[in-house]
Amino acid sequence: MCRSILTIASLSLCTAAPALAQAGPAADRSIAAVLVDPGPPGASQVDYFIKFDGVDGATAPMDLSAQILLFVNGTPVSSRTIGLTQQPTGGCSGLGCEPGEPCLCTDPPVVCECGPSTIIVESFPEPVQPGDEITVLLMPAPGAVPDPDSTNNSYSTTVATDRFWNRRITGATAVPASAGGDSFFDIFTEISLEARYDGELDLSTIVQVLVNGVVVAESAALDLVIGFSPCECGDDCAPQWQGACVAGGTSGDCACGINISVVVPRVHVDPDDELIVALVPTPDALPELPPFEEDDEHGAELPRVCEADLDGNLIVDFNDLLLMLTSWGPCAGCTADLDGDDMVGFNDLLMLLASWGPCFPV
Known about the structure:
Layout: E1 4-8, E2 11-15, E3 29-37, E4 45-53, E5 62-63, E6 66-72, E7 75-82, E8 84-87, E9 103-106, E10 111-114, E11 117-124, E12 133-140, E13 154-158, E14 164-176, E15 184-196, E16 200-202, E17 205-211, E18 214-218, E19 225-228, E20 244-247, E21 259-268, E22 275-281, E23 297-299, E24 304-305, E25 315-316, H1 318-326, E26 329-330, E27 343-344, H2 346-354, E28 357-360
């Protein structure tokens, strides 16, 4: 029920009574990020990312809709409503949700996804200019369940068209696993976080491993929050990351470095398989921005199949070179005779050197 009317200039918003005065369920809505897309001249837009957290234990549909208001230089210029309904457990059975898992549905158009929270991206097509002061306000829509926390319902910034964030994979390598058999590999993935922003960004992600297009393994969720505010890193960060920190896992340690290495252990891969690693944002984290989606996947380098592993330890190294040299010369049927000409010679040496490093068993 609408309890009051907030009128600012020519815009009117119906606001709910404060959460403390409400009885019954409540749902947290928060502004996760705000960016400005410059677009062509005169056609810029303000993109905002709204996170909705569902109602725990809901047994009936819940209206989580929100109203959004945009101020430019202190003047309200646009408002809109985001329609969102939480279906109770089992309300979206056709989506394949886990038992006991609710789902959230936008309206319109009706698009549903499993899980207790979601991030919705919307835009205000406003001709803002660099240097403009913009504020985005968020509040429950009329008739929607109240919001228990209003501290995360506004965001103010100065327009800068170079604001962005990006997760990208810079490299991926398969290394023979120490246990599990000849065709099991540890998949090492190098991740780079890049951003230019004036607030906190949740870029948490999961590394998935795909073999022939099918997800076969994934890492634990990586808790990656970049905060552009004072932290333990202090003045030790590089100038472009002044005060920026990455907190990983449960240690809470701070690091100025934005490069992260992740290993997914013991993945079964055969010599002819296609191996790809991919970054997938966690459900509560910000999605990737469209210009940067292509660098979220990377082919993983597989060891080569080789006959030059003379000692059978799944790596061609100095020991194999010594074994070849001890067989140098005429040697019918020798394992070091890689080209099969009954002679261990210069051609065999070149084949061994070309196979240097980890390799599959023959």
